[in-house]
Design brief:
The protein has a single domain, classed as 3-Layer(aba) Sandwich (Dihydrofolate Reductase, subunit A), CATH 3.40.430.10. It is α/β, with parallel strands linked by helices and 152 residues long. Helices cover 18% and strands 36% of the residues. The chain has a seven-stranded mixed sheet with strand order 4-3-5-1-6-9-8, sandwiched between helices. The chain has a two-stranded antiparallel ribbon with strand order 2-7. The protein contains four helices and nine strands.
C-alpha cells in the first residue's frame, strides 16, 4: 500500500470539479503541473474521469475502478510508495479515509452547481496541515495548494 495517497484536483472557487460528470474540463490551467506531478506514478480514477482524461495519461499506471471495488483493496494492489487519486467526485469521496495529501488548484470560476469535490452522502472531516503553494498562473491568481492530512 502506498505511503502517500494524494488527491489531486482542479476546482472552482465554489468547490466543483466539473459542470457534469462527462465534462471534458477545458477551463483547468494546471494540466502541465498535473502531468509533471503524476508522471511515473499510479493514478486511480472512476470510469467517467477516464473517459474525459484518458488522452492525458500516458506514462502512468492507470487504475480505473468500479463502484464495487473497495478502496483498501485497490490501494493494497499498488506497490509504488505514492499514488494519485484523480477523480471524480464519487471516487474522491470513496477514498477519503485513505488520503494522506491534497493538491488542490482553485480556478476563478463559480459554477453554482455541478460535481462537487467530494460527491457522496456523508462528508468526512479532514484536518489539514498546509505544506506548499505552487504558482500555476500568477496573473490569473491560480495557485496549487498542497496539504498533508492530519491523522487523528
Amino acid at each position: 500500500m502506498p505511503a502517500e495517497v494524494i488527491l489531486i484536483a482542479a476546482v472552482t472557487v465554489d468547490g466543483f470539479i466539473a459542470r457534469h460528470s462527462l465534462e471534458v474540463t477545458t477551463w483547468s490551467k494546471d494540466l502541465h503541473l498535473f502531468k509533471n506531478q503524476t508522471m511515473g506514478y499510479p493514478v486511480v480514477m472512476g470510469s467517467n474521469t477516464f473517459k474525459t482524461l484518458s488522452s492525458e495519461l500516458d506514462g502512468r499506471e492507470v487504475l480505473v475502478i468500479s463502484r464495487h471495488q473497495k478502496p483498501k483493496d485497490v490501494l493494497s494492489g499498488i506497490s509504488n510508495d505514492r499514488c494519485f487519486i484523480i477523480g471524480g467526485g464519487k471516487t474522491y469521496h470513496r477514498f477519503i479515509k485513505h488520503i494522506t495529501h491534497l493538491y488542490i488548484t482553485p480556478h476563478p470560476y463559480v459554477f453554482g452547481k455541478g460535481v462537487p469535490l467530494f460527491d457522496g452522502d456523508h462528508a468526512e472531516e479532514l484536518k489539514l496541515n498546509f505544506q506548499k503553494m505552487i504558482t500555476v498562473d500568477e496573473e490569473m491568481g491560480i495557485f496549487q495548494y498542497q496539504y498533508e492530512v492530519i491523522k487523528t
